[in-house]
Specification:
The chain is an alpha/beta fold and about 270 residues long. Helices cover about 45% and strands about 20% of the residues. Strand 2, helix 4 and strand 3 form a beta-alpha-beta unit. The two termini are about 30 Å apart.
Length: about 270
């Protein structure tokens, strides 16, 4: 996507940090436990005793989960200063005695940051928002120590990616009132789709936190405003990562082609550097 250098500047990006600052006020011990369970599902026991890098730390919730799962040190980096401040606030509250730090560092600057390499590098739903997804993947992979683990999630390529790219670009630069109206339309259509499919929308909301400990309404704002936006298929991901010297250990992907009417969703991957 990076045919326009402005896409690489944080001023052109959606204000993810403000959304995560709002979300962090809702974080409870129950949500932290859900985040731990999700992270353990992805990485098993490979976090314990390891140095952990969280690229695009957002609220800091999953950095906190990594600490509670036994990481010896956690470093969270984000381009957005609001996200960095939010992670510091959250971890100061819930993990004041643990070894961690939150830094305003772009994924593109990791190699020159002096942070070195990590046993586990984690980046969930971030690298497709950088303006140059493939370069971001390569930079993130460079932070993985030999034999280390790289866990990440990326938007699945769908037939409606072109529409969502257009929508996100406009939503990200719209007024708060216009964004609120757009969210109301999206949620209304989503409720109607649940009804047609025979699903209970309220039950869906009640269970949503079990997905990484997140919040549905904050995630809708994040999805609709996630600009820049790129997507990738599992086959494209594996071809790229194999070329970078990684082998796939596990992945959780949508088992069929999806239209992407209410979003593409993220495919999750765990690769080991060989």
């Amino acid at each position: 996507m990076a045919d326009n250098v402005d896409l690489l500047r944080k001023e052109s990006h959606f204000a993810f940090g403000k959304n995560w600052a709002s979300f962090s006020e809702l974080v409870t011990e129950s949500q932290i436990a859900d985040a731990e369970a999700w992270l353990k599902r992805l990485l098993g026991d490979s976090i314990r005793g390891k140095r952990f890098l969280d690229i695009g730390c957002g609220s800091g919730l999953h950095s906190l989960a990594a600490l509670r799962l036994g990481a010896t040190e956690v470093v969270g980096v984000d381009l957005d200063p609001d996200s960095v401040a939010t992670m510091r606030k959250l971890l100061t509250k819930f993990a004041p005695e643990r070894k961690w730090k939150a830094l305003e560092v772009s994924v593109f600057d990791l190699e020159t940051s002096g942070l070195g390499q990590f046993d586990v590098v984690y980046s969930w739903g971030v690298l497709h928002h950088t303006g140059d997804m493939y370069r971001a993947l390569r930079c993130a992979a460079s932070a993985v120590a030999p034999g280390g683990t790289f866990a990440f999630a990326l938007y699945r390529k769908t037939r409606l990616c072109g529409f969502w790219k257009w929508e996100k670009k406009h939503y990200a630069h719209a007024s708060p009132a216009a964004q609120k109206r757009a969210r109301s339309v999206f949620i209304g259509l989503f409720r109607a789709n649940c009804l047609l499919a025979g699903r209970d929308f309220q039950q869906y909301l009640a269970e949503y936190s079990r997905q990484r400990g997140m919040d549905f309404h904050h995630d809708v704002h994040d999805w609709m405003g996630g600009w820049p936006y790129e997507s990738i298929s599992p086959e494209q991901t594996d071809t790229f990562m194999t070329g970078e010297g990684f082998l796939c250990e596990r992945r959780f992907v949508v088992g069929r082609e999806t239209l992407g009417l209410f979003g593409s969703g993220c495919d999750e991957y765990v690769y080991r550097r060989v």
